Amino acid sequence: MTDARGSAGPNGAAPARRTSGTPCWVSLMVHGPATIQEFYAALFGWEFEAGPRQPGPYVRALLDGREVAGIGQLPPDRHLPTAWTPYFASGNVDRTAETVRLCGGTVGVGPLDAAGVGRLAIGSDPSGAVFGVRQAAAHIGTALAGVPGTPAWKELRTFESESVAKFYETVFGYDEEPVVSADLDYVTLHLDGRPVAGIHGMGSSLPRDRGPHWMTYFQVTDVDDAVDHVLHLGGQVLRPARDTPHGRAATVEDPEGARFALLEPAR
């Protein structure tokens, strides 16, 4: 995991055009959106505005009037686990979806057109980790970065990094930078010479109840204070705050069980 503030444009604003493979959005589908909106509003200071109603109710989270994430409602007849899903930019979603299939992944939703968003698809890599692909139209995605309450990093937690890194390298054109360590299996994915995401091979320590999954880190001012807020607001702490080479971090979950990480970047 590393600090991804370099992916933002001047003054923290995200660039208008994104290279294919750049993380461009993060979305959460839940059963009770009103309660979850209250949780994240209190935790990150988000406000909300209505988004496209496809396939159901959806809101966009705002900071300083700029979009940072989305929250939608799961169909009541579908008992799916709640999770933050990262989306990666693509210049041609249909072509990317076909590459996903050819490389051993699956495409479960789309490609389809979403009003005001563009064209998108949701799939999974060969290990089963779910991610989305977006071809932007009017809505380019996350419009603010590098400040508290915004996505700071995307990290795939999986059994081993080598084979799945090859999948993402082929699909999105990433360059790999493995961590040379006997006790850490980690690959950083680069685009245009800058880090955009990481892959952490966790072996047997990967949570069996979740399997391989993408983890979104959200930036906070004080991670210990944010952890206290999570508990007060009805969430849970899965891994307490600890110091890392990139700052202080903790892993938590919201009241519906969606897991995410908090990051206080190193100064």
Short structural summary:
With 267 residues, this protein is an alpha+beta fold. It has helices at residues 33-44, 93-102, 161-172, 223-232, and strands spanning 23-30, 47-50, 58-63, 66-73, 84-89, 106-114, 118-124, 130-136, 151-158, 175-178, 185-191, 194-201, 213-219, 236-244, 247-253, 259-265. It is built from four helices and 16 strands.
Secondary structure blueprint with pairings:
Elements: E1 23-30, H1 33-44, E2 47-50, E3 58-63, E4 66-73, E5 84-89, H2 93-102, E6 106-114, E7 118-124, E8 130-136, E9 151-158, H3 161-172, E10 175-178, E11 185-191, E12 194-201, E13 213-219, H4 223-232, E14 236-244, E15 247-253, E16 259-265
Parallel strand pairs: 1-4, 5-8, 9-12, 13-16
Antiparallel strand pairs: 1-5, 2-3, 3-4, 6-7, 7-8, 9-13, 10-11, 11-12, 14-15, 15-16
Domain VOC: 22-136, 150-265
Organism: Streptomyces bullii
Protein name: VOC family protein
Outline the structure in words:
It comes from Streptomyces bullii. Residues 22-136, 150-265 form the VOC domain. This is VOC family protein. It holds the Pfam family Glyoxalase_6. Strands 2-3-4-1-5-8-7-6 form an 8-stranded mixed β-sheet, covered by helices on one side. Strands 10-11-12-9-13-16-15-14 form an 8-stranded mixed β-sheet. The longest helix has 12 residues, at 33-44. It has 2 domains: 5-136, Roll (2,3-Dihydroxybiphenyl 1,2-Dioxygenase, domain 1), CATH 3.10.180.10; 151-265, 2,3-Dihydroxybiphenyl 1,2-Dioxygenase, domain 1, CATH 3.10.180. The protein has helices at residues 33-44, 93-102, 161-172, 223-232; strands spanning 23-30, 47-50, 58-63, 66-73, 84-89, 106-114, 118-124, 130-136, 151-158, 175-178, 185-191, 194-201, 213-219, 236-244, 247-253, 259-265. 16% of the residues lie in helices and 42% in strands. It is globular and about 45 Å long. With 267 residues, the protein is of the alpha+beta class.
